[in-house]
Design goal:
Blueprint lengths: L11 H18 L3 E6 L2 H4 L1 H16 L3 E6 L2 H10 L5 E3 L2 E3 L2 H25 L4 E5 L6 E5 L7 E7 L2 H8 L3 E5 L1 E4 L6 E4 L1 H11 L4 E6 L17 E2 L4 H6 L7 H13 L4 E6 L5 H7 L6 E3 L1
Parallel strand pairs: 1-2, 1-11, 2-8, 5-8, 6-9, 7-10, 11-13, 12-14
Antiparallel strand pairs: 3-4, 6-7, 9-10, 13-14
Helix pairs in contact: 4-5, 7-9
Length: about 290
């Protein structure tokens, strides 16, 4: 869908066709678990943020069990600048010392998480904010490259999330994790990776990443070269030829993590398109790239 379609006015007949097209998808997805990783421009732009929250509430209202996992890199950077905390980098990756970890936890679990929950409630949803620390949802260890309190997920205990979903709530998860047994530390976790592992633990039917790009493009400068469907077995050749490269690699790797863990469908969709989540869920044409 082109961005300018948001300005089109649909006739009554066109609206009827949209609703008729969507109805089978309503039935198919009712009762299924869908994990959405939320970030990028859709998180920074207020209009897009409102649209995403409306989508999430609609999905939940018709009986889809939606789990929203969010990051918050730009907000963390902003807060570090405000307190005059100088960032240290190791091979281009941020080193998170104890003081920075306190700020990460404050921003992700104390501000962003509750801001998102508040908007969902205003839109008529039933949402509960969680972090990976709550009920031991996420356990982590230090990454192999020593980046301080940056961790990788070693275990997911989804019991609290499942309980909330069964009661009709929308769990909103920030990716601060507890250390493994015997380790009382908190760790900052990459939100894409955490979301993929949460999707696996919940046996989700779909894992969706809202990003700042249309999807996987054969030509990065030409949106018309979007690849709409990619079978898992084709990922290696697309990487080898450079079609999947740069910042797209970790997104694809997260999709692969979800697929190998049993999630049937994974998607990379453009969070800059208002209501892109609804377009993907309830239309024949979909949006972005599906990896299956």
């Amino acid at each position: 869908m082109e961005n300018n379609t948001q300005n089109e006015t649909l006739t009554t007949e066109q609206w009827s066709k949209v609703l008729v097209e969507a109805l089978p998808y309503f039935k198919a997805w009712c009762g299924k678990v869908v994990v959405v990783k939320y970030g990028g421009n859709a998180m920074l732009n207020e209009e897009l943020k409102q649209a995403v929250m409306e989508d999430i509430v609609l999905l939940s209202t018709i009986g889809i069990k939606v789990v929203l996992v969010h990051g918050g890199g730009p907000e963390i950077n902003h807060m570090l600048d405000r307190v005059g905390k100088e960032s240290k980098f190791v091979d281009g990756l941020r080193y998170t010392d104890a003081e920075t970890m306190e700020i990460v936890q404050m921003v992700l679990t104390g501000k962003l998480n509750k801001d998102i929950v508040g908007i969902l409630l205003q839109k008529g949803g039933r949402a509960v904010g969680l972090s990976g620390v709550d009920s031991g949802l996420l356990r982590a260890k230090k990454t192999e490259k020593d980046l301080g309190f940056v961790g990788e997920v070693t275990d997911v205990n989804p019991e609290i999330v499942t309980s909330l979903l069964d009661k009709g709530f929308i769990p909103v998860i920030s990716t601060v994790a507890l250390g493994e047994q015997g380790d009382s530390s908190r760790y900052n976790i990459n939100a894409d990776t955490a979301a993929a592992k949460i999707a696996v633990a919940l046996k989700a039917e779909k894992f969706v990443q809202l990003t700042n790009v249309p999807g996987v493009l054969r030509n990065i400068d030409d949106p018309s070269t979007l690849i709409k469907r990619i079978e898992k077995t084709a990922l290696g050749s697309l990487k080898a030829t450079g079609i999947i490269a740069g910042g797209m690699i970790p997104k694809i790797d997260c999709c692969l993590t979800a697929l190998e863990g049993g999630v049937p469908r994974t998607h990379i969709i453009d969070g800059r398109v208002p209501h892109s989540l609804l377009i993907e869920m309830f239309s024949d044409r979909g949006i972005g790239t599906m990896i299956y």
